[in-house]
Design goal:
Structural class: mainly alpha
Order of helices and strands: HHHHHHHHHH
Shape: globular
Distance between the termini: 27 Å
Radius of gyration: 16 Å
Number of strands: 0
Helix content: 40-55%
Number of helices: 10
Largest sheet: none
């Protein structure tokens, strides 16, 4: 994949002005799915998103861990009630996303891939890079300690999918404005290549790279 996709791409829809795209979080997903779901390329984007959703739904991660991963991807996902309704969290939110995607992605949940098949070296490398995250900023709207996210990324890498955890890790570095040490950049590049991702995936953190 050359560009961002899946849950981390959906998170980009929750920018400061997301409510122009719909009054509720579910409306944002519905509007986007309807926009891109009219052709095969767009439906492939939605299929990849639903694959991420099902990976996490079937995972041993807690609702709090799932929410932590989502929050670093969706910086302005609501923290307070929207239209007097609490925003869904964890698996409840994933199930809402899945519901909005069903008209465009007909595959059953059983057909989606399950636990990632990355080698132990890749899982360990993602965990090691997560441990090097050094926050210089706080997340907007909702207080969320970086250590909570680091732990969630590590568990995702070890027990769910190292490739998915890597994409959340990139978002975490950007969300916390964490510098990327110069000696760590080659590890990011190697993992990015091993997961079959394109160079644009790393644009998420390139501005944080230390010389």
């Amino acid at each position: 994949m050359e560009f961002e996709f899946g849950l981390t791409a959906l998170g980009e829809k929750f920018h400061m002005d997301w409510r122009y795209d719909g009054p509720n979080p579910q409306d944002v997903v519905r509007q986007w799915a309807g926009f891109v779901g009219s052709d095969e390329a767009g439906r492939e984007e939605l299929r990849l998103l639903r694959e991420d959703v099902h990976l996490l739904l079937a995972s041993p991660l807690s609702d709090d861990e799932i929410h932590a991963l989502w929050r670093v991807s969706a910086m302005f996902y609501p923290y307070f009630p929207v239209n007097e309704v609490e925003p869904p969290r964890g698996r409840a939110w994933l199930m809402d996303i899945d519901h909005e995607l069903r008209p465009y992605v007909q595959r059953s949940a059983a057909e989606f891939s399950t636990t990632g098949t990355a080698p132990e070296s890749a899982r360990s490398a993602v965990v090691a890079l997560a441990e090097r995250l050094a926050p210089r900023a706080e997340l907007p709207l909702e207080p969320l300690p970086a250590r909570t996210v680091i732990a969630a990324v590590g568990r995702c890498a070890r027990e769910v999918s190292a490739a998915l955890a890597f994409r959340f890790l990139l978002r975490a570095y950007a969300a916390y404005d964490s510098p990327v040490p110069s000696d760590a950049w080659s590890s990011f590049e190697a993992l990015n290549h091993s997961f079959g991702y394109g160079e644009f995936i790393l644009e998420t953190i390139e501005f944080l790279r230390e010389n």
